[in-house]
Recover the amino acids of this structure.
């Protein structure tokens, strides 16, 4: 939900800036997002600075920050050892000072994924981009972000407050759908080297991947059933009926109305698997 709130805050800020004439509907979308994020950053607390002081600081210092300086800062920050040494040298010269504004920016979005969407797209979401199960689970939730944005827009268009219970329920439901899709597409994703939850679990857990993934699925289903019972009875009934219809439309032939879980055989050597299919001899 924290990531959804961040998207909602960003969208609200962009709309507010458009209504005040700061942004125009013809402006570049990436530029709009950048400016809106800057506004949200300025609203974050920093010691005893108020908004008027922050605005004055931006007016004073922003013109001095050139693209050349930004490139230099980018290089410096990527070289952690050199950057840390510069900080130590600076501290030794000027002594200890108030660090209230030097701490990392903290927001209300503590559960944001550590793997960015741009990184996933740039690297084609390969196994190498994910170093822990926590990253994998967060990435799965991010895969359905477009549905959540549409839901938030729907609330806004209807002039209604976001129903936290509904969004929590949809989030866990989307998680289960994404996992099911990944299991169905496992072989294709291995072949194309795409992000796939089972691939990631195999990398972390090896032969125990099916067991560990089944554990996550069970926990998610328990949460799903708990939230489902918390919904309005008629809404819950309508949702379940639609899920059953969608399952039938997808070709389900199981006696179970929502289908059954099926974890495919693991591919131990992905390179060999791809080689055999792409270059058969």
């Amino acid at each position: 939900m924290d990531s959804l709130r961040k998207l909602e805050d960003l969208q609200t800020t962009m709309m507010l800036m458009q209504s005040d004439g700061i942004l125009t509907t013809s402006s570049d979308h990436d530029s709009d997002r950048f400016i809106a994020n800057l506004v949200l950053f300025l609203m974050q607390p920093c010691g005893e600075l108020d908004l008027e002081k922050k605005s004055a600081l931006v007016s004073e210092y922003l013109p001095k920050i050139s693209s050349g300086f930004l490139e230099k800062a980018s290089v410096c920050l990527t070289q952690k050892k050199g950057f840390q040494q510069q900080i130590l040298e600076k501290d030794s010269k000027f002594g200890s000072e108030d660090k209230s504004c030097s701490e990392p920016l903290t927001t209300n979005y503590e559960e944001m994924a550590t793997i960015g969407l741009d990184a996933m797209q740039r690297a084609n979401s390969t196994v190498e981009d994910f170093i822990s199960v926590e990253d994998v689970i967060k990435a799965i939730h991010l895969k359905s972000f477009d549905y959540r944005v549409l839901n938030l827009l729907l609330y806004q268009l209807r002039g209604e407050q976001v129903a936290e219970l509904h969004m929590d329920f949809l989030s866990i439901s989307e998680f289960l759908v994404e996992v099911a899709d990944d299991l169905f597409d496992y072989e294709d994703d291995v072949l194309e080297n795409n992000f796939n939850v089972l691939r990631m679990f195999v990398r972390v857990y090896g032969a125990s991947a099916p067991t560990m993934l089944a554990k996550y699925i069970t926990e998610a289903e328990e949460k799903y059933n708990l939230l489902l019972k918390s919904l309005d009875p008629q809404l819950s009934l309508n949702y379940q009926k639609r899920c059953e219809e969608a399952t039938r439309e997808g070709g389900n032939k199981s006696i179970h109305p929502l289908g059954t879980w099926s974890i495919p055989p693991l591919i131990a050597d992905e390179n060999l698997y791809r080689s055999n299919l792409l270059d058969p001899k």
